[in-house]
UniProtKB/TrEMBL annotation:
Lineage: superkingdom: Bacteria
Designated name of the protein: Integrase catalytic region
Pfam families: DDE_3 (PF13358), HTH_32 (PF13565)
NCBIfam families: transpos_IS630
Length: 367
């Protein structure tokens, strides 16, 4: 039998040689380490047979590694894993699992409103003859993008002028962001926050495992309530607020006067909801006399008021997880947060830019 001609690795430049040496020292994959070692041995002048003997391989395997490296470079060192056990559950079964998980149990005659993994596995076994474990169901659902999520309520607006009112508010938001309002004009989102009573509130925080903070339990609400009237200036992103014992039209009008004093020039566009004090005749007359426009959100559509997102942050960072001993302490915490937020404020420029409410075919009564 004729002896096969010897094969050697092509000439390497210094950078390639250094990279090859580094792979032989740091590679954790056995296949990659062996291939790199064979190539390095060939670089050092050893024959394929000698290199194969160093790494417990056959001479033919060493020649294939060297040829592959000469053709593909360092990519030839990486193993190309393939094969393995075929999946036990095919696309049809996986689609069935996801479809059943998305179906309320009561629709298939079961006496509960939601699935647990164990109940889902039992139903698949009894009704569809699919033998599967809870862990596999969890992996199948996760891979398909089906997640365990909380159910949320939604109040659809029944305002016959929903589209016109929403378009007006979005137009003001967009014009404010683009600087297209008339000289000195501002858009300010106003709403009431509260009632603020004194009670322990659950919250979240970083604690040792199984050692979260504990708050006292109480069914009493001593100390009365307070109300916060707040305005969000879109041009600066800052919050302005007042805390009062009541939230009648007198308090609302007084707050509007304070905003007018703060911004004496230009028209004020006040975004607010349909709370009855906002529609009081005395409030409307004062607004007409002082170049203030009240822009009302559609009924059951307070989410169009930009200040609601600020209230969410305010509640999360000042009230959740708290148990203030007095209104003074609670209001001091609110004041501290508002000062911090105003120092970090930025102009409000993007309100739901990718939301479906921006589509011309948006249906207001569809959640």
């Amino acid at each position: 039998m004729a002896r096969q001609p010897e094969v050697f690795v092509r000439d390497l430049d210094p950078a390639e040689a250094q990279r090859l040496v580094k792979i032989t020292r740091t590679a954790r994959d056995r296949v990659r380490l062996r291939r790199a070692g064979i190539v390095l041995a060939s670089v050092q002048g050893r024959t394929a047979t000698e290199a194969a003997a160093m790494f417990a391989a056959t001479p033919q395997y060493a020649r294939e590694v060297i040829h592959a490296f000469n053709d593909k470079g360092f990519a030839a060192l990486d193993p190309k894993w393939s094969g393995g056990r075929p999946p036990k559950f095919g696309p049809h079964t996986r689609e069935l699992i996801c479809r059943v998980a998305r179906t309320p149990p009561q629709q298939v005659g079961l006496p509960f409103t939601t699935w647990s993994l164990s109940k889902l596995v039992e139903h698949l076994r009894e009704r569809h003859r699919v033998e599967i474990s809870t862990d596999t169901v969890r992996r199948v659902l996760r891979a398909a993008g089906v997640r365990w999520q909380a159910t949320k309520t939604w109040k659809a607006s029944n305002d016959p002028q929903f589209a016109q009112k929403m378009a007006r508010i979005l137009d003001l938001y967009d014009r404010s962001a683009a600087g297209q309002l008339t000289s000195g004009a501002r858009v300010i989102c106003v709403d009431e926050f509260g009632p603020l009573n004194l009670q322990p509130r659950p919250g979240r925080g970083w604690f040792p495992t199984r050692g979260p903070a504990r708050l006292r339990a109480t069914y009493n609400r001593y100390g009365g309530v307070r109300h916060m009237l707040a305005g969000l200036d879109l041009a600066s992103g800052q919050l302005f607020y007042r805390l009062r014992d009541r939230k009648r039209w007198q308090e609302f009008l007084a707050f509007l006067r304070q905003l007018r004093t703060r911004f004496p020039r230009g028209r004020l566009h006040i975004i607010c909801d349909n709370f009855s004090p906002h529609r009081k005749a005395e409030v409307a007359d004062w607004c007409n006399d002082h170049d203030v426009e009240l822009v009302f959100t559609p009924t059951y559509a307070s989410w169009l008021n930009w200040i609601e997102s600020e209230f969410t942050a305010l509640r999360y960072f000042t009230l959740d997880g708290s148990d203030y001993p007095s209104h003074t302490a609670q209001e001091a915490a609110i004041a501290g947060y508002v000062r911090w937020a105003n120092r970090h404020a930025r102009p409000k420029k993007r309100f739901a830019p990718e939301s479906r409410i921006r589509r011309p075919d948006y249906l207001p009564n569809v959640a």
